[in-house]
Amino acid sequence: MSAVLPHAPLSLSSPSPAPVALRLDGVTKRHGAGGDAVVALDTMSFTVKKGEFVCVVGASGCGKSTMLNLVAGLDTPTAGKVVVAGERPALMFQESALFPWLSVEENVAFPLQMQGLSRKARAARVAELLGLVHLEKFARRRPHELSGGMKQRVALARALAQQAELLLMDEPFAALDAMMRDHLHSELEALWQKTGLTVVFVTHNVREAVRLGDRVLLLSSRPGRLVAEYEVDLDRPRRIESPEVARLARTITDRLLEAARHAAA
Amino acid sequence: MPQRELAGDVAAARPHLHALPGGEQAREGHVLIDMPERSAHEDPLRAGLRAATGEGEPAAGERPARARALWASAWPKLAAVALALALWELVVLSGWRPEYVLPGPRAVLGRLWADLLAGDIGVAAAITMKRALLGYAIALVAGVGLGLVLARVKVLRTAAGSLLTGLQTMPSVAWFPLAILLFQLSEAAILAVVVLGAAPSIAIGLLTSTDQVPPLLVRAGKVMGARGLSLYRHIIIPAALPGFVAGLKQGWAFAWRSLMAGELLVIIGHAPSIGVRLQFSRELSDAEGLLAWMIVVMLMGVLVDGLVFGVLERKIREGRGLTAEHA
């Protein structure tokens, strides 16, 4: 295991002391104990600046769910340190995870209720959030009445309701068709630019990562290690089918395959 | 939707029909596919219309459809009752037992009506229902409390889980000798057994239903700040509600059975409950009365099951889009 200097991330593109939204310092996570222990994350270090959109790609088994759990505070690292700016981060999943017994507006109001906001304050904020994801008309509907894309938009509104500085997204669009995904990429990008949120977006779709991210972090599998990172220096809004996106995606995919071969060997 | 599948089957069986232009096709296949074809076409159309207008409220034109749906669900039940009465009448007519032992439906229903008008049934039903509700209420509190504690404390669950199952499977009549010994022939004896009958089912219903809460929802709740009791209140209990209601329903069935057994065994003279009336009818060899009271017991069970738990279950299922497609 390589020694990691405190407060010195492996690679930080700009050395200027921009405000940091998330920092992992030599984070290791082992599941189980003794000979059966599985190392899910191996001395992982990286920093996400405030307002940055960082995509994390890796094959299955790269420990991305473990990493998100650690950052979301649902689990604690075996070694190392996770530093999150502000309150508890918001987390969005591949499935909407909407509560089926609540209407759309009640779902979006849920984090506000947990924060102890009054009914009136909640209603105003919920209307605003549903406006952001263009679902005002569906406030009274139940989740089962919505399409997959609409559910994810409600989930996004609910995540935004938390007013966290950091939004974690765990393959949020993986279950959607390509057209809906394209559409939601644009919506998410617009929202991100409007709110100044910091986003950590986990995906195994490399093009999606290049389409959305300021930076793409590449993780290897078993154990999960940070093997490379790419600066995405392309103008926004990008198109997922543009040649520039495709070119960088190809470079990253090649590196990903190399890492996979390395892991298999 | 079975109708659509049916239409598909028919189409598969006669593929040439689909090769013909639409109007011709319906005429060609008239005898065979008219009914399923039409309903298969109607359904998505109406659903699409509803989606397009964004209306959940039934339009004026749907009222006859609703009446038809009501009739569709009512007539098989009525037919089944009629069939049961006819069978009963047949057995009586066969002369298997003399009529003073096994009277026919007409005499029994007449007696039922007369007792109802005289107010006897009302009085007895009120006494019995009061006991049932009181016992069930106590069982509800005890069952939920026990279930929650066992759900939260793993050691206790390991320790008491199988004991609870043992309690649940034990026929509640077996408790009566002990209950009578402890409480004499009193309301308390009946109540104790009703509670013992219902509480384990409610607790087990709560436990299994909380076990089945999707972990993703719990995770989502935690991320949004629900911890400890508020996690239970806002996520786990609502998510477990459908299974919990099934446990409540089973608890009611056990409470009702225990109560009937109790009222037959623990006769309290000044309280003419349904059980007392049943027992007296037997002692007086009043077969008409006996059967009439049995019908009362059955009807009360059906009413509570349908009106309380049936409605509750349907509401929950509909609200979550769990309405069975085959229903």
TrEMBL record, chain A:
One of its GO terms (molecular function) is ATP binding. PANTHER family: ALIPHATIC SULFONATES IMPORT ATP-BINDING PROTEIN SSUB (PTHR42788:SF13), TAURINE IMPORT ATP-BINDING PROTEIN-RELATED (PTHR42788). InterPro entries: AAA+_ATPase, ABC_transporter-like_ATP-bd, ABC_transporter-like_CS, ABC_transporter_ATP-bind, P-loop_NTPase. This is ABC transporter ATP-binding protein. Keywords: ATP-binding, Nucleotide-binding, Transport. Pfam families: ABC_tran. It comes from the Bacteria. Residues 22-246 form the ABC transporter domain. SMART domains: AAA (SM00382). SUPFAM superfamilies: P-loop containing nucleoside triphosphate hydrolases.
UniProtKB/TrEMBL annotation, chain B:
It is a multi-pass membrane protein. It is found in: Cell membrane. CDD domains: TM_PBP2. Residues 125-309 form the ABC transmembrane type-1 domain. The chain crosses the membrane at residues 133-151, 163-183, 189-210, 231-248, 254-278, 290-312. Keywords: Cell membrane, Membrane, Transmembrane, Transmembrane helix, Transport. This is ABC transporter permease.
